[in-house]
Request: fold
Amino acid sequence: MPPVMPPSDAPSTALPPDPEALAAARAALCEGAFGASGAEVVVEDCLVGEEVSFFALCDGRTVRAFGSAQDHKRVGEGDTGPNTGGMGAYSPARVMTPALEARVMDRIVRPTVEGLAAMGAPFVGVLFAGLMVDPAGEPWLIEFNVRFGDPECQVLLPRLRGDLAEIVDATARGQLDAVDFGWSDEAALTVVMASKGYPNAPEKGSVIRGLERVEGAQVLHAGTVRDASGSLVAAGGRVLNVTATGPDVATAQHRAYAAVDQIDWPGGFCRRDIGWRAA
Reply:
C-alpha cells in the first residue's frame, strides 16, 4: 500500500489507497485466503523503481560480488497480473552499473557479512540481496536469501567462465580470494514456460513436444515427468526454462524466443517481453 505522507503544516494524511492492495489485505484478513499465516499483514513504504537481484559469495571472511540479474515477477506482459515465482530473467541487470555494484557492496553486503562475523556467526555461502533501485539510483534492500535465485541462476551460470565446483569448494574452505570467476561479457536471458492457469491453478498433464528441434538455446526442466506412455508432460506450474546468450540482451532475447517458438506445447504459455527494460 502507499505510505502515509505527513505534510509539514497538517496532520498525517494517507495517499489514496490502492484497490489491489486493499483487496489483497481483505482476502488475507477477512476471507482467510492464506489460513493462519494471513492473520497479520505488514504495511510498508511503497518503494518505486527497478528490482534487481544481486549475488555475492562469502567464505566467512572474504565476500565477493557474483553477478546480477533482473527477474520478472508478474505473470503478464508489462508487469501485470499476480506475482509468480518468476517468469523469466536476464543478466547482467541493466541498472547494475559498476558504481552501483560498489555502493551495494559497501553499504549493504559487506556490513551484513561483517556484522554476522562480529556476532560469532560468520556466513559461508551464497548471499542473494533482493534490491529496489529508486529513480535517484539509490539501492534499497528488500530481502536477503541464502541461495541462488530461480530463474536468476539460469542466467548467471551461462555467463560464468570459471569452474563452479572450484569456486564453491574455495568458498567452503575459506579460500574465496584465490579463485577466478572469469565472467563472460555476453548477456543471458531465460524465458519461463508455465502451465496454463499458473500461478493460481496450473493445469498439469499436458503433453510437451518438439524439444528435440530446439537450437541456439538450452532448455532446463523445472516441472516435467514422463507419463505411462513415455510422453513428456507438465507436472507443475513453472515447467521449462529456455535460456540463450548473446552479445547483448536484445540478441539473447531473440534467440530465446526463437527457441520457445520451436516447442509444441498448447497447454503452456510464457511472457513475450522478458528483458524489455534492456532489449
Q: What stands out?
A: The first strand starts at residue 4 and ends at 5. The helical segments are 19-29, 98-118, 153-156, 164-173, 249-260. Confidence is low (pLDDT under 50) at residues 1-14. The CA atoms of residues 244 and 254 lie 9 Å apart.
